[in-house]
Amino acid sequence: MTTAPALHTVLGAGPAGTTLSGELAARGHRVRLVDRKGQGPGIEGVARFAADVSTPEGAREAVEGAAVVYHCVNVGYHLQVEVMPRIQEAVLTAVRATGARLVVLDTLYPYGETHGVVMTEDTPWNATSSKGVMRAELDARYLAAHADGRVRVVLGRSADFVGPGVLNSTMGGAVFPAALTGGQVPALGDIDLPHSYTYIGDVAAGLATLGEHPDGDGRVWHLPTAPALTTRQILGMIEERVGRPLALTVVPEPRPFGPFDEVFMAAYAEMFYQHTEGQTVDSSAIEKAYGLSPTPLSDTLDATLAWYRAFLASR
Hints:
This protein is α/β, with parallel strands linked by helices. The chain has ten helices and 13 strands. Strands 3-2-1-4-5-6-11 form a seven-stranded parallel sheet, with helices on both faces. A two-stranded parallel sheet has the order 7-10. The protein is globular and about 55 Å long. The relative contact order is 0.14. Residues 12-217 form the NAD-dependent epimerase/dehydratase domain. Pfam families: Epimerase. This is NAD-dependent epimerase/dehydratase family protein.
């Protein structure tokens, strides 16, 4: 008698959760993708499921029967400090009750301002922004829960997303549609500083790999991230691919512009230091430990532009 593959449950159906679900299914896992509505385009090998994981009841329903749970839920910038701790509490309680392992998609926010120093997993957590302090507190709770034996947890940190399906990123819906149509492309802060971007496919591959390797539990890993270029260099690579100069508008300070509306920018202002100092991520630890390689930026941009061309054509 054959045994059914273990269930891997992904919480959050944004670009990361959706891409991760496809990655897990391609690796032969049984996959459940959870968001509030349980709706969306079909993904081969993935079952959609509706639940509100910010509530204890919804989180328990979402993770029931799962061997591994991936927390990829995020909320709007202006809601994060209030809502993310509530989601953490519900998810931790649920996975503790069911015995599942927990893989958390994390940000660089706990490090705070690094003054351009390359970020490794040993970089101190010196956040002073409200969202950075909140994220650091959440991460400390995750790691304490693992250390205490309550929940098996591992954290995967990513730089800014880029790639197919990524809209709400500084290298996303604000850049690629305008690059393809000749519109104004906003460029935040000092674009001559190095800035790491993590390909959404590498986010998925890194998280899936952590989900398959419990020997990596109890710590933070940087997800595979290509060597940093300056934002200007990346924009230049986009110019080469679209065949014309980009109409750049440099936004040197946090103010509304284009898709970055007043609500977003007011909440993002405290994080704007990410564009006024170098942001370089070293992901060599996970690469060496599990044989992963980040997607070259040239391939990332090719895939992203192809997706955006199709996206714009479908509207």
